[in-house]
Write a structure and sequence with these properties.
- The protein is of the alpha/beta class and 389 residues long.
- The chain folds into 2 domains: 4-45 and 151-220 and 330-388, FAD/NAD(P)-binding domain (3-Layer(bba) Sandwich), CATH 3.50.50.60; 90-143 and 221-327, D-Amino Acid Oxidase, subunit A, domain 2 (D-Amino Acid Oxidase, Chain A, domain 2, 2-Layer Sandwich).
- It has 12 helices and 18 strands.
- It has helices at residues 14-25, 59-68, 74-78, 97-110, 122-128, 150-163, 207-214, 244-251, 259-264, 295-308, 354-371, 385-388; strands spanning 4-10, 30-33, 49-50, 90-94, 118-121, 138-142, 146-147, 167-169, 174-180, 183-189, 192-201, 221-230, 240-243, 269-272, 278-281, 317-327, 334-337, 344-348.
- The strands form 3 sheets. Strands 1, 2, 8, 9, 10, 11, 17 and 18 form an 8-stranded mixed sheet that branches.
- A hairpin with a 6-residue loop joins strand 17 (334-337) and strand 18 (344-348).
- The N and C termini lie far apart (43 Å).
């Protein structure tokens, strides 16, 4: 078996698969090393929201605009139906005047990136989503939001990469990084040693461990999210939807005073899949790699969901799951070249935006690795930004 490649990508989830595909398009010999399988990590424990309404204004939104623009053509490009629902819309529902003021300021800032987003009153919101509670104040609404099947998206990227010659080494764990002085030369794995000119860390919430192996500390932590899934029902939701608290917890946690909310990150995220099942979440918990579901979180999630959507009281929950989002201190991912270790790159830390940002991350990182510079500046996502500080 060949054990020498141009690029080794550590991590075969949505991010690693997208990166491998874009590298293979550029005629790179690529090996993807994945300790389990393609959807064993965050890609298999998430919803499929592809929208603007949850993104930070500024650099984060600009990156999202470029990534979301890629989705309409992905099924054809990758050769597999990814169940992309374009234009279903996205909402952040607003519960009080304080949230209303915050969402109005957010919408104004987000529109700088050219997106169609606005605050609407509850009457208009209920015209779009009749099952919403009439007690709400309104919603931040983007009509161009979309959704995708995250499992199919991940498998599609992996399959397309393989057709272009990329090799996927599943159920293989990286145990060390081979270096020659300050230059990456390969990885030690449970399947033997593999050698490369360049190594990409794309192991999501587990990326800090690999960074340590390579000699580059990465401040990425696992942030657990618990979600529940209902029985299939008839048409219930059009939009992908979160509550305004979802954005506040993620981007302005200092404004939260409730100890329970701070500890669990409990908010509401809801989406209906093509088969009629409704995915309801979620929590944002910094509890290490504790993957257990908890009754406390289930009760919080379901109480909140039924308060915002009273009709859900008559729908049965059939299963629950938890996953780990890769959290960074400033809420922005790490995408690009490491300055202190030659040949080392990072594509990780997207937290809850990995599905939406995978296409552009793969493309820009491949451009930087192969062409020497990306077509869109990655400076705000520089992996070295905390080392510099």
């Amino acid at each position: 078996m060949n054990n020498t490649y141009d690029v080794i990508v550590a991590g075969g989830g949505i991010m690693g698969s997208a990166i491998a595909y874009e590298l293979a398009k550029k005629n790179q010999r690529v090996l993807v090393v994945e300790r389990d399988d393609q959807t064993a990590g965050a890609a298999g424990a998430t919803d499929g929201v592809v929208g603007y309404h949850t993104k930070k204004a500024g650099f984060h939104m600009d990156l999202a605009v470029r990534s979301i623009a890629m989705f309409p053509g992905l099924s054809e490009e990758l050769g597999m139906d990814i169940e992309y629902g374009e234009g279903c819309g996205g909402m952040l529902v607003i519960e009080d005047v304080e949230q209303l003021e915050l969402m109005e300021a957010l919408a104004e800032a987000q529109r700088v990136s050219g997106v169609d987003i606005q605050v609407i009153d509850i009457q208009k919101a209920r015209e779009l989503e009749p099952h919403l509670s009439s007690k709400l104040v309104g919603a931040l609404y983007s009509p161009t939001g979309g959704k995708v099947n995250p499992l199919k998206l991940t498998f599609a990227y992996a399959a397309a990469a393989k057709r272009l010659g990329a090799v996927f080494q599943n159920r293989t764990e990286v145990q060390g990084v081979i270096r020659d002085g300050n230059t990456v030369r390969g990885v030690n794995t449970t399947a033997g040693d593999f050698f490369c000119e360049k190594l990409v860390i794309a192991t999501g919430a587990w990326s800090a461990a690999l960074g340590d192996m390579a000699g580059f500390p990465l401040p990425i932590k696992p942030r657990k999210g618990q979600l529940v899934v209902t029985e299939p029902v008839g048409p219930f939701l059009n939009c992908t939807m979160q509550c305004a608290r979802y954005f506040v917890i993620k981007n302005r946690p200092e404004s939260i005073t409730d100890e329970y909310i701070l500890r669990t990150g409990a908010s509401m995220s809801i989406e209906q899949m093509d088969d009629g099942a409704i995915i309801i979440g979620s929590t944002r918990e910094l509890v290490g790699f504790d993957s257990e579901n908890t009754l406390e979180s289930f009760e919080s999630i379901l109480r909140r969901a039924t308060a915002l959507f009273p009709a859900l009281r008559d729908v049965h929950v059939i299963r629950a799951f938890a996953g780990f989002r890769p959290y960074t201190p400033d809420g922005l991912p790490f995408i690009g070249k490491v300055n202190t270790v030659e040949g080392l790159y990072v594509g990780a830390g997207h937290e809850g935006d990995g599905i939406a940002l995978a296409p552009i991350t793969g493309r820009l990182l491949a451009e930087e690795i192969v062409d020497g510079a990306p077509s869109f500046s990655l400076e705000p996502f520089d992996p070295n930004r905390f080392a510099k500080a």
